[in-house]
């Protein structure tokens, strides 16, 4: 009832607060700020902003306008606490507790850094930071309700000072109690960003500071799966189920200072050269805290070592890059040198008998480059290159190449060839623990090398997209069923093929998306479902004399049964299944929703996992961690253009 009253309050505010529609992108043409005749015979001009006066960009992307269209993809984005379409991932029972990846992909933010896999869903890397350009002060609110108690609120305020300088302040707070004992999630993010472009456009600067905390109680899954599956009414209250851990929590702190500026020394367009300097300092810290050792992980005192029950790992990266750019509209090339100081360490030294160093550090030198070519607006090439080497973590090489062309108007083809080789994720290199069996040091590891070949074809017919990817991973690094890092002696090969389309008849629409994947050889090292799919059947129409717009429909998710990896809270990573594990999947997850747009306010109301109201919940995110039960999920998005 509280959520429904909250919704009605926001609807009323939206109808009252936005009677003056300054930025309706459906009623204005893509142009600069409109100049409206004042009606008097004098020099007074009245400027009326349009939606095209409110833009954002990442440092190396083109500007985009604020996306206020009520498209089908919004129901997948703003129904999620991280405001992303999480296709190919399955959420834990409590929001803020992460996802299990069902589909293989490369996370470049893990390169030469400490980033536990299950802490990555909420993080913002350098290329995720938005810089704004707005004609009037602009505020955005995004709200999500939590599980049992709590909420998620994402707020942004941005303003231009003059025409050339913009700053933005963003804050995200998440607190969700969860239905199971010891499953509280509490995350927060503070971010400042700024962008400056000089009047003569010869100097440009981007800068940001971000501090993120991702904190979770770790309950270790339910102790007796049969009590969950049998459907005894005594356990409909999930707090009555015994859990494996009672006094453990994990914390991840992520902080970055970033500044990049570039200068064009020549005024003539014949010499479009620029000099760019970029510096950033990033630190990652991971803590696993316990008031005392958990009996779930040991049987007698000999299984413990003389070490604190709490453990800490950290990484630091101080990076300096100087580049020279050749910047034409159809041809851009930059190349530079990069110096990095990188550290990986643990909080307190372990006993000498463990033979695990307290800190690894090195000074790295390398080169970076980027090439962009645009031919007649029909063919575009974007290539990135990075190489560095050091004495401790070895060499790192990454080459990313994407070509996009339009053979027929409104039919696009994208092809990519990517390669990278470098140290395994820092979280797999070393670990300190009071539990003897969870200490490790992966000394002199081989470089993990990943080759990716793929692409997609975008067709006008049914707004369809067909894609295919192939991955070859050499020296694949993983955690075995004992939570110890291992490297495969033979390559892991993964193929993926899938597609998406939208079929429409009047106001009714069907939007399915499917992905088929398989591992060719070494499939036991990375268990994955062979099929992942979803379908969205919905009705969309204007309402209330075109003052609002409605979406209503049903979404169904499904992934095939497979012998899933298990979640290991000590590392916040996924490990190979134990002998007592079991397969998950093969169960549909159905959501019924009603979405509403009023001016610049959106409401997303979902009955999630509705099928558990008439059948037992037998679905799991990973073994011993059931997926969420039925819940009313609310999302609210409000853009305020002052």
Name the average pLDDT.
92
- The span between the termini is 32 Å
| Number of distinct beta strands | 38
> Low-confidence runs (pLDDT<50, min 5 residues)?
1-29
- Quote the beta fraction: over 45%
> What gross morphology would you assign?
globular
Query: Which range best describes the helical content: under 10%, 10-25%, 25-40%, 40-55%, 55-70% or over 70%?
Result: under 10%
Return the domain count.
1
Largest sheet: 22 strands, antiparallel, barrel
Going by helix content, strand content and strand pairing, the class is: mainly beta
Over all CA atoms, what is the radius of gyration? Answer: 26 Å
- Return the CATH class: Mainly Beta
Determine the CATH superfamily. Answer: TonB-dependent receptor, beta-barrel domain
CATH topology: Maltoporin, Chain A
Provide a count of the helices. 3
Instruction: Assign the CATH architecture.
Output: Beta Barrel
């Amino acid at each position: 009832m509280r959520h429904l009253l909250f919704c009605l309050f926001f609807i009323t505010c939206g109808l009252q607060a936005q009677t003056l529609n300054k930025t309706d992108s459906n009623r204005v043409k893509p142009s600069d700020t409109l100049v409206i005749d004042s009606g008097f015979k004098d020099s007074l001009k009245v400027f009326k902003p349009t939606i095209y006066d409110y833009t954002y960009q990442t440092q190396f992307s083109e500007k985009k306008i604020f996306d206020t269209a009520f498209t089908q993809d919004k129901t997948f984005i703003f129904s999620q606490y991280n405001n992303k379409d999480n296709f190919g991932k399955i959420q834990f029972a409590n929001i803020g507790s992460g996802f299990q990846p069902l589909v293989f992909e490369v996370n470049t933010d893990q390169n030469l850094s400490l980033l536990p896999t299950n802490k990555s869903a909420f993080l913002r890397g350098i290329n995720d930071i938005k810089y704004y350009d707005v004609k009037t002060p602009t505020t955005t609110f995004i709200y999500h309700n939590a599980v049992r108690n709590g909420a998620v609120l994402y707020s942004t305020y941005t303003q231009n000072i003059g025409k050339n300088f913009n700053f933005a302040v963003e804050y995200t707070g998440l607190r969700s109690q969860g239905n199971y004992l010891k499953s509280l999630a509490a995350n927060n993010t503070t971010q400042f960003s700024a962008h400056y472009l000089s009047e003569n456009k010869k100097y440009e600067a981007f800068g940001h500071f971000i501090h993120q905390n991702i904190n979770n109680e770790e309950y270790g899954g339910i102790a007796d799966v049969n009590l969950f599956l049998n459907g005894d009414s005594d356990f409909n209250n999930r707090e009555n189920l015994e859990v494996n851990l009672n006094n453990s929590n994990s914390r991840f702190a992520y902080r970055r200072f970033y500044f990049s500026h570039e200068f064009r020394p020549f005024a003539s367009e014949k010499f479009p050269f620029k000099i760019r300097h970029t510096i950033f300092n990033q630190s990652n810290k991971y803590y696993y805290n316990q008031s005392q050792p958990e009996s779930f992980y040991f049987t007698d005192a000999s299984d413990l070592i003389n070490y604190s029950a709490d453990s800490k790992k950290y990484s630091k990266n101080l990076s300096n890059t100087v580049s020279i750019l050749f910047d034409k509209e159809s041809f851009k090339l930059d190349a530079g040198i990069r110096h990095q100081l990188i550290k990986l360490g643990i909080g307190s030294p372990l006993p000498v008998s463990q033979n695990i160093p307290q800190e690894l550090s090195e000074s790295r030198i390398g080169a970076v480059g980027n090439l962009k070519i645009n031919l007649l607006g029909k063919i575009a090439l974007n290539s990135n290159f990075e190489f560095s080497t050091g004495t401790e973590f070895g060499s790192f090489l990454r080459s990313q190449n994407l070509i996009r062309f339009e053979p027929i108007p409104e039919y696009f083809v994208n092809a990519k060839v990517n390669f990278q080789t470098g140290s395994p994720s820092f979280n797999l290199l070393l670990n300190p623990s009071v539990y003897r069996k969870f200490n490790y040091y992966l000394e002199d590891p081989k470089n993990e090398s990943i080759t990716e070949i793929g692409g997609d074809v975008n067709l006008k017919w049914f707004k369809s997209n067909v894609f295919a990817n192939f991955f070859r991973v050499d020296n694949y690094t993983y955690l075995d069923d004992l939570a110890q890092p291992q490297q495969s002696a033979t390559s892991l090969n993964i193929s993926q093929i899938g597609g998406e389309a939208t079929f429409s008849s009047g106001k009714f629409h069907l939007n399915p998306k499917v992905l088929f994947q398989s591992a060719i050889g070494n499939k036991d090292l990375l268990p994955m479902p062979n099929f992942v799919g979803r379908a969205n059947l919905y009705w969309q129409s204007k309402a209330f004399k075109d003052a609002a717009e409605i979406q209503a429909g049903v979404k169904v998710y499904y992934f095939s049964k497979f012998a899933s990896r298990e979640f290991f809270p000590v590392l916040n990573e996924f490990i190979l299944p134990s002998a007592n594990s079991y397969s998950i999947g093969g169960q549909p997850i159905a959501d019924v929703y009603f979405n509403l747009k009023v001016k610049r306010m959106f409401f997303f109301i979902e009955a999630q996992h509705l099928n558990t109201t008439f059948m037992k919940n037998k679905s799991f995110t990973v073994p011993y961690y059931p997926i969420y039960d039925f819940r009313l999920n609310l999302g609210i998005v409000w853009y305020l253009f002052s």
